Amino acid sequence: MDEINFEHIPVLLEETINSLRIKPDGIYLDATAGGGGHSSEILKALGENGRLIAVDRDPDAIKTLEARIGSDKRVTIVHDNYCNIKSILSSLGIAGVSGILADLGVSSHQLDTAERGFSFHNDAPLDMRMSQEGPTAADLCNTLPEEELRRIIRDYGEEKYAASIAKNIVKARDFTPIETTLQLVDIIGASMPAKARRNGHPARRTFQALRIEVNGELEKLTDSVNDMFDSLELNGMLSIITFHSLEDRAVKQAYAKFCEGCTCPPEFPVCVCGNTPRGKLAFKYKEASEEELSKNARSRSAKLRSIERIK
Q1: Which domain holds residue 95?
Q2: Which of 24, 164, 181, 211 lies 20 to 30 A from 238 at CA?
C-alpha cells in the first residue's frame, strides 16, 4: 500500500503516554490516530497480549496507519469518527478499554497539504473537511445567511469583527462565488481595521470557526467525552488534548461532572442524594514545555487533561 506523507508531530507526547498509565496487556484506543505518532508510542509500551484500536475519519490517515502500523497483530485500524466510539467498540466485541486518547487538533498533514483547504497561508480550494465528505467551507460561505455566518464566526472563532466579516462575505459572493482560501483571506482582511490585522494573522479566527462548523467539532464533543468515559473499564484513563478555549471548556466541564460528588444542600446533616464521584483527575492540565515549543510551535495552544474512572 502506498503511504501518504501524513505527518503529525505528536504534541505533549511523553506527558500523554504517561497519563494513560499503560498496562502491557491492556486495550487502548487512539480516537484520532492521524499519522500514528501517539499510537506508535502506545504500542511500544504494550506487551504481546496488549491491543490498540486506532481510529480516524480522514481516509489519508487510514492509508498511513495501514502502512505504518497495520501489520502489527495487536493493532485494529478503524475508519470512523470518534463520536461513534460505542458502536465501534461494540462491533469489535469490546466491553471496555484500559485507556483512550483523543488529540483534537488538526494534523500537520491537513494543514500543510494546501489542497485540503485548512491553511490561510496557501491558495487552495476552500475545503476544510477532515473526512473529505459532506459540505465544504466554500459551501458554507456561498449559501448560509449572513446572520448564520456571523453566529459561526462569533461563537466558534470568538472573532470581534464577525459582523463585518459575515457582511462582506455575502457582498462578495453576490459578484463571484468564494471558492479559494485566499479569496476568503482577502475578504477577512478588508473587514478589519489595520491595527487588528497586525495582531496575528487576520484570518486565523474565521478559519477556525468555519473548520469547527464544517467538521461538527463542538456539536457532539460533550456527548463524545461522556461516551469515551463510559467506555473505560474501572481505573481506565481518558486523556484529551485540546487546542482552543471552546474545546477545552467542554472537556473541563465534562470532567467536572464525572468528579462531582454529593449535591445535597450544605445545611443537610447527612447526604441523601447518594451521589459519589465517578472520576478522579490525574492532574489539573498540562501544557507544552519550553523545549517542546522551540521544536513545534503548533503545540503552543495545546492542553492535556486526563481523568481516571473510579466508579
Answers
A1: 13-104+219-309
A2: 211
